[in-house]
Amino acid sequence: MDRKQLGLGKAEPGDLAEIQQLELSNRYLLNAYRDTMAGNALAPVIAITKALEAKDIAKVIDTINTAFSTIPYDLWQRENEHFYHALVHLVFSLLGTYVQSEVHSSKGRCDALVQTDKYIYALEFKLDKPAEEALRQIREKGYLDPFMDSPKEKIAVGVSFSTEGKRVVDWGVEGGNKKS
């Protein structure tokens, strides 16, 4: 849900007073965000925005892993795929990126859909499974099919999280730059 949908109006990057109005169920994430952003609020916003505009998925993954690394170990309990999905959604939302979760289509639902001026990213998440499995699901379920009329480039991104490593350990891309 974006700021407009929450009735908070337009906020400028780093406007923590506006962010404090949110009633998030996990207060720790908000506090971690405020602590991280205190030094240079625009750096992560600019980094993730530029990475998405440049189809630099490696930088997006690095940003996600950096955010995950700030979460203390004792908060990582009973992780499941939905836990990681929610964290990614919050990372994108707090960094000012438009993200939709659980986007329904005729054959299923895509974990996350991110749009920029030039690209539509379909992200599928897997926990302790190969990223290729996530990419296969995007293809087989046709998560990008509803956007075929759009002139934007469509990019499938499969992401594999590790419960042991508490991070993205594998990822793959179809339609954009490949991981090296």
3D structure, described in words:
- The chain has helices spanning 16-19, 27-37, 42-53, 57-69, 81-94, 131-141; strands at residues 99-105, 108-115, 119-127, 153-162, 167-174.
- The chain is α+β, with helices and mostly antiparallel strands.
- It has a single domain (16-174), classed as Trna Endonuclease, Chain: A, domain 1 (3-Layer(aba) Sandwich).
- A five-stranded mixed beta sheet has the order 1-2-3-4-5, with helices on both faces.
What features would you highlight for this structure?
5 strands, 5-stranded mixed beta sheet, single chain, disordered C terminus, Trna Endonuclease, Chain: A, domain 1, 180 residues
Summarize the topology:
Blueprint lengths: L15 H4 L7 H11 L4 H12 L3 H13 L11 H14 L4 E7 L2 E8 L3 E9 L3 H11 L11 E10 L4 E8 L6
Parallel strand pairs: 3-4
Antiparallel strand pairs: 1-2, 2-3, 4-5
Helix pairs in contact: 3-4
CATH architecture: 3-Layer(aba) Sandwich
- Briefly note the structural class of the backbone: alpha+beta
- Low-pLDDT stretches are 1-8, 16-26, 176-180
Sheet having the most strands: 5 strands, mixed
Secondary structure: number of strands:
5
Cα Rg: 16 Å
* CATH fold-level topology: Trna Endonuclease, Chain: A, domain 1
- Quickly name the level 1 CATH class: Alpha Beta
Strand portion: 15-25%
Cα distance spanning the termini: 33 Å
Rounded average pLDDT: 76
